[in-house]
Amino acid sequence: MGLDATVMCTCLRDGTITEPPFPREWLTVDDEENVCLKGEHDSDANWRAFDRWMLSCCRHEGMNLACQ
């Protein structure tokens, strides 16, 4: 049995992210504090663009402050 944990950074909240490849209004934060796309914008093309953007949108790769 393993235990994994991730702590998201506060760059979205602090406004220090780069502009996403779509309107910021398409972003939301889920119950687990993960940044994701709102349901009505949930498409394969949007998720690919979102994933590429998340890798370098702030100084924390994937907006992860810490992972264990």
Structure description:
It is a single chain. This protein has helices at 11-14, 44-56; strands at 6-8, 27-29, 35-37, 64-67. It is α+β, with helices and mostly antiparallel strands. The chain has one domain (6-67). The chain has a two-stranded antiparallel ribbon with strand order 1-4. The protein has a two-stranded antiparallel sheet with strand order 2-3. Strand 2 (27-29) and strand 3 (35-37) form a beta hairpin. The model has no long low-confidence stretch (mean pLDDT 88).
Outline, from the CA principal axes?
globular
- Poorly predicted ranges: none
The total of beta strands comes to: 4
Please trace the helix and strand order, writing H or E for each element: EHEEHE
Strand content: 15-25%
Helix content: 25-40%
How many structurally independent domains?
1
The gyration radius over C-alpha positions equals 12 Å
User: Mean pLDDT, nearest integer?
Assistant: 88
Largest sheet: 2 strands, antiparallel
Q: Decide which structural class fits the backbone.
A: alpha+beta
- Main sheet: strand order: 1-4
- Count of alpha and pi helical runs: 2
Taking the alpha carbons of the first and last residues, their distance comes to 14 Å
